[in-house]
Specification:
CATH topology: Spore Coat Polysaccharide Biosynthesis Protein SpsA, Chain A
Helix content: 25-40%
Distance between the termini: 46 Å
CATH superfamily: Spore Coat Polysaccharide Biosynthesis Protein SpsA, Chain A
Order of helices and strands: EHEEHEHEEEHEEEEHHEE
Shape: globular
């Protein structure tokens, strides 16, 4: 099987070089590039939201330590929020023959070696799969689904789009097809990430084809050590986009 091209999209923002968000970002990008495995073609895109230039320079320095990340592309959404960063990223990478996008925010640390080759091959094996969640399976209401096994050794919970739980889609670490991103459309700009996520979760298309991996070591609970861990104890929530 010919593996699809994968773009790793790294979303970041820090108001200053002394802010903890800069430390989170450099650590998370380093661990991501060290621990992520993929047998197909892969490149890196850094989606920044108006950080000081030194922040981007530091991230580029981390990226260039990894041979597969030599070709780094960047966008700057200039303090218009996560939604604008996402829109700028898709506009940049969709112009290339990228087929899959792994989106990670700068305070999600990849805690162990993680090969996504089998996960990425599942998209071609089962056309129902649009997005594979790589974070915990959070829910407050009833969340239904069916178990599928599109490739050997990789089972998935294909979430029922009509589940009462609102957040079938999640803005945590995830792999999506470019087609799915185009179907989702533009994200809301000039709002904080939580508001943007609520808006996207309310779109019907965002609830279809969402999978959670059963055999990849991604824990269903945030309370246990998992593949990705959220380390962002200090946020910039009050530094709202203007």
């Amino acid at each position: 099987m010919t593996l699809p091209k994968l773009t790793v999209a790294f979303f970041t923002y820090t108001p200053s070089m002394s802010h903890p968000r800069h430390q989170y970002a450099t650590r998370c990008l380093d661990e991501l590039l060290t621990n992520l495995g993929y047998d197909g073609p892969c490149n890196l895109h850094i989606a920044d939201d108006g950080s000081p230039p030194e922040h981007l320079e530091a991230l580029r320095a981390v990226a260039h330590k990894r041979p597969w990340a030599d070709q780094v592309t960047c966008t700057d959404s200039q303090r218009r929020g996560y939604g604008a960063s996402y829109n700028a990223m898709t506009n940049a990478v969709h112009g290339f023959p990228d087929e899959l996008v792994l989106s990670v925010e700068d305070d999600w640390a990849l805690m162990r070696p993680f090969d996504v080759t089998a996960l990425c091959s599942a998209f071609a094996a089962d056309a129902r799969i649009n997005c594979i969640r790589l974070n915990y399976l959070g829910f407050a209401g009833e969340l239904r689904g069916s178990v599928i096994r599109p490739v050997p050794g990789q089972g998935f919970l294909l979430l029922d789009p009509f589940s009462p739980e609102y957040h079938v889609w999640s803005a945590g670490p995830r792999i999506e097809t470019v087609h799915f991103q185009r179907e989702l459309g533009l994200f809301r700009e000039h709002c904080i990430a939580g508001e943007m996520e609520i808006d996207v979760a309310g779109r019907s298309v965002s609830r279809h084809g969402i999978c959670w991996p059963l055999d990849a070591g991604v824990n269903s609970s945030l309370d246990n050590p998992s593949t990705f861990a959220h380390i962002g104890t200090v946020s910039v929530k009050d530094d709202r986009p203007v």
